[in-house]
């Protein structure tokens, strides 16, 4: 199990990225636009720098929903490899069967 504080910090980052995402995207589009003036571009850069760092989507870590494990997490299932294998062996994941040949 991961520390609860790490899991909660990651959840806070997800919430911030969801709420401030459109604002950040608008500022980034303004910065990347070739037709904007230098003053407007600089103002957008300053505003983007003033947004919280944790509102960036890049800072979100993929973690297991069950244990909070940060590594070896399958994106499709949002689970770590060991929990995925455990639940698949019990037959609790629909459509997933153990391969044999």
Protein architecture, described:
The chain has 101 residues and is mainly α. It has 2 domains: 1-61, Helix Hairpins; 62-101, Ribosomal Protein S14/S29 (30s Ribosomal Protein S14, Chain N). Helix content is 51%, strand content 4%. It contains 3 helices and 2 strands. The protein has helices at 4-32, 38-50, 81-90; strands at residues 73-74, 79-80. The longest helix has 29 residues, at 4-32. It is elongated. 8% of the residues are buried. The mean pLDDT is 93.
Task: Indicate the topology.
Blueprint: H1 4-32, H2 38-50, E1 73-74, E2 79-80, H3 81-90
Antiparallel strand pairs: 1-2
- Sheet bearing the most strands, described? 2 strands, antiparallel
Mean model confidence by pLDDT = 93
Order of helices and strands: HHEEH
Under the CATH scheme, which architecture of the largest domain would be assigned? Orthogonal Bundle
Strand content: under 5%
Percent helix range = 40-55%
Count of DSSP strands: 2
Quickly count the helices. Answer: 3
What would the CATH topology of the largest domain be? Helix Hairpins
What is the count of distinct domains?
2
Query: What class, by secondary structure content?
Result: mainly alpha
Overall 3D shape: elongated
Any idea of the CATH class of the largest domain?
Mainly Alpha
Poorly predicted residue ranges: none
Question: How would you write the strand order of the largest sheet?
Answer: 1-2
Q: What gap, in angstroms, lies between the N and C termini?
A: 34 Å
Please state the CA-atom Rg, rounded to the nearest Å.
Answer: 20 Å
């Amino acid at each position: 199990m991961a520390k609860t504080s790490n899991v909660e910090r990651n959840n806070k980052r997800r919430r911030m990225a969801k709420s401030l995402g459109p604002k950040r995207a608008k500022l980034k589009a303004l910065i990347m636009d070739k037709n904007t003036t230098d003053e407007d571009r600089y103002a957008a850069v300053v505003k983007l720098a003033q947004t919280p760092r944790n509102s960036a989507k890049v800072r979100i870590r993929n973690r297991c929903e069950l244990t909070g494990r940060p590594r070896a997490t399958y994106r499709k299932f949002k689970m770590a490899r060991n929990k995925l294998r455990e639940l698949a062996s019990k037959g609790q994941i629909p459509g997933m069967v153990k391969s044999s040949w």
